[in-house]
Amino acid sequence: MTSSSARFGKSPKVAIIGAGVIGLGIAWRLAAQGARVDVFDRGPAGKGASHAAAGMLAACCEAEPGEDALVALGRESQAQWPAFAAELLKASGIDVELRQEGTLVVALTADDQARIHHHLTHQKKLGLPLEWISAAETRRREPHLAGKLAGAVWSPEDHQVDNRKLAAGLRAAAEAVGARIHEHKPVKEMSIVGGRVDGVMLADGVKVDADVVVLAAGAWSRGIAGLAPEQRPPVRPIKGQMLALKMDSAAPLTTHVIWAPGVYMVPRLDGRLIVGATVEEKAFDTSLTAGGLLTLLEAAWRAVPAIEELPIDEMWVGHRPGSRDDAPIVGPGPAQGLIYATGHHRNGILLTPVTVDAVARLVLEGTIDPAIRPFGIDRFAPPRAAE
Fold first, then answer.
1. Is residue 180 a part of any domain in this protein?
2. CA pair distance 276, 316, nearest whole angstrom
3. Do residue 9 and residue 43 come from a single domain?
4. pLDDT of residue 214
5. Distance between CA 97 and CA 343 in Å, rounded?
6. Before 277, cis peptide (omega within 30)?
7. Residue 120 CB coordination number (10 Å)
8. pLDDT value of position 85
9. Whether residue 331 sits in one domain with residue 309
10. In this predicted structure, what is the pLDDT of residue 2?
11. 178 is in which domain, residue-wise?
């Protein structure tokens, strides 16, 4: 294991492209260890996918066939969340409101139940702590659910945090240890000389020197020049429309995260009920559409009819960074000194603790955490022809 001073002869100078929760978290970790860190974002810090997310930590109930390595990564990060949230509160003074009521995956009909049981069989094989509960038990936990109900899967370890407070806390913590956040400073390209990065070129023509460049620009990662197109991370924007309803915080309609057919609902301590989310291949389109919002509201109403009386608090669009296989791209890039931390798709909030720690270790020690090894860019390389 090599220390950062031995690797760089001094504290490394790091340029991070992207000021979402991943980029800000890495900045916090690195600056706390003495690195000189600059974070650049095309817009306001924390206002991209990190702002648009729902904050679910759903490593268990979202597990699907073919995602075993991703489930393992999510479970590791999930286990780190309580300590991570406590540490961030101490460092920033901001409580990210880690709520540990758990998640209900609700079946309204027999067809829903059959589909959920199909997934549950696979999830049980992975050893995930999920169980089917009756309609009566489901309604005991959430009395405002629809009158006709088949039951639900209970996920006691799938929790939530307030993603917007997470972004604010990570920024405050990073700046407190000396990281510099540059908003509205888009990076045009990475400067690569002789197969090694030596900094970034901003859109205004200014070059910023760096020993290490971390590409954490989410859905915009592929658009950063400097590498040949075939070497850039295969990340694309996946549009999601969402809205928030306003409940009475003293008497909320729901207390658990609820997944129902076609929708999820995430209650916040301030009374907001986050309702999401569409999944659309529409590039960087930012339009709120009648059809998208109607689909969400109708699905939410079928599960919790009483939402029809709630005022709409906010509506918005976000862009998830989806990779070719919907798993994150974390690890060394094709140029020396380049590190990827992108492509987290719907799991960016969940995977924040494990990603930021693994990337910080990679920068400072040159070691690849076994947890992220399956998620390197090399998995997308074309197979070599047989000799």
1. yes
2. 10
3. yes
4. 98
5. 25
6. yes
7. 19
8. 98
9. no
10. 45
11. 4-52+165-234+325-380
